[in-house]
Amino acid sequence: MASQLLQTYSSLGRSGKGDNNKKGIGWRALPFLALAQFMVVLDGTIVNLALPRLQMEMGISDSTRAWVVTAYALVFGAFLLLGGRISDFWGRKRTFITASAGFAVAS
Questions:
Q1: Is position 21 within any domain?
Q2: Is 19 part of a structural domain of the chain?
Q3: What is residue 29's predicted lDDT score, i.e. its pLDDT?
Q4: Are 84 and 91 a contacting pair, CB within 8 Å?
């Protein structure tokens, strides 16, 4: 069964769509995906750098500071799920461009 799936996949080409008319689209998309990943890492770094000052100014404990990080991660994950669902309706490219622009404006 697994060998049949592998043969079927390999006969479809790298994109999994039969005829691969858009050769090299992955390489053209790579800089945009790398930029999006950089924005995510940068945002996470900014949150972690702001935490000590937030803790000092608001007078929160270390355990509460850990909850801030947890809440940030949960909200981020929820938005990833929501973005995946929206991309099912709108399409991946349009969702990616809209979400990247919104993320950049919000940051």
A1: no
A2: no
A3: 83
A4: no
- Domain assignment present for 98: yes
Domain count, the chain: 1
- The arithmetic mean of pLDDT across residues 55-62, rounded, is 90
Owning domain of residue 76: 30-106
| Cβ(82)–Cβ(90) below 8 Å | no
Closest by CA position to 69, among listed 95, 42, 50, 93: 50
pTM of the predicted model over 0.85: no
- DSSP H or E run through 104: helix 92-106
Residue 27, pLDDT score: 84
* Angle (CA) 37 74 26, round 5°: 25
Q: What is the mean pLDDT of the chain?
A: 80
